């Protein structure tokens, strides 16, 4: 049996699909991503933390702290500096710096990075509680994002990291 498994017979490899540019656009168009409420902003920040910084595992996300992100500006424009910690793996409205800055400000720029979304105030202010989002909730983020965006495929939190790697590969960055 082990010999057959080593040859790939009798098994179906489950793997996470990367989020394509078309799927990403669909998520913006459907309002899954954006700053209309605390959940859409959190989904946006979660996905781009995966895509831009290669985060994937729920533990990598669960252990994030606000002080691991800095927003700056130089001659090239606004930028995000991510200060990683040791782990197993280490244009306008869509400006990730703007979304991240809004998110960090809503968190008071302190403490756990993913917290329970609260309903917006009457004036539309995005809010989060102090209670961190649990591991089981984090584990479902990418699946929820894909469902809300009507994406077809197998999407897990690893899809974000795969999207990061795929993007780097297609832009010619050496392995």
The portion of residues forming beta strands comes to 5-15%
Low-confidence stretches: 87-93
Mean pLDDT: 84
Return Rg in Å. 17 Å
Helical fraction: 40-55%
How can the largest sheet be summarized? Answer: 2 strands, antiparallel
What best-fitting shape do the alpha-carbon axes yield?
globular
Please report the number of helical segments. Answer: 8
Give the strand line-up of the largest sheet. Answer: 1-2
Q: Within the CATH hierarchy, at the fold level, what is the topology?
A: hpI Integrase, Chain A
Identify the CATH architecture: Orthogonal Bundle
Classify the secondary structure makeup into a structural class: alpha+beta
Please report the total strand number as a whole number: 4
| The number of domains | 1
Distance between the termini: 34 Å
Order of helices and strands: HHHHEEHEEHHH
Superfamily (CATH H level) name: Intergrase catalytic core
Identify the CATH class. Answer: Mainly Alpha
């Amino acid at each position: 049996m082990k010999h057959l498994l080593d040859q790939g017979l009798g098994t179906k490899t489950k793997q996470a699909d990367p989020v394509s540019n078309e799927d990403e656009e669909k998520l913006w168009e459907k309002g899954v991503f954006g700053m209309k409420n605390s959940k859409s902003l959190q989904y946006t920040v979660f996905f781009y933390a995966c895509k831009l910084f290669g985060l994937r595992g729920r533990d990598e996300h669960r252990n994030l702290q606000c002080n691991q992100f800095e927003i700056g500006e130089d001659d090239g424009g606004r930028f995000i500096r991510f200060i990683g910690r040791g782990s197993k793996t280490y244009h306008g409205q869509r400006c990730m710096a703007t979304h991240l800055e809004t998110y960090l400000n809503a968190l008071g720029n302190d403490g756990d990075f993913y917290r329970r979304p609260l309903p917006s105030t009457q004036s539309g202010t995005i809010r989060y509680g102090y209670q961190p989002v649990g591991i089981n909730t984090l584990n479902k983020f990418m699946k929820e994002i894909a469902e809300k965006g009507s994406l077809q495929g197998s999407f897990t939190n690893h899809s974000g990291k795969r999207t990061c790697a795929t993007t780097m590969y297609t832009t010619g960055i050496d392995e």
